[in-house]
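Continuing the series of single-chain predictions for the mutant panel. This is the parent chain; the variants come on the following pages.
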Amino acid sequence: MGKKVKMRCTYCGRTFFKGQGVEVVIGDEKFYFHSKKCALRFLQMLLERIPPEVSVPAAKALARELQEAIKKKEEMSKKKFA
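Parent structure:
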């Protein structure tokens, strides 16, 4: 059996084994978190530091894409009568 690799949470410093937790990739960088709570806090802090003129248009575009996907899913699940 292979050796277990220990990772360190980027947000709180807690150690955990590779394969557990959350991995966030931004560009060429990888950030590891022991829980989704730590990952969410990190991402919230990151968004606060990104200028609104960059983050708001990207957030609006993503929200539109997600709404379109929801509409398509709803249309596919409707009962069809012949």
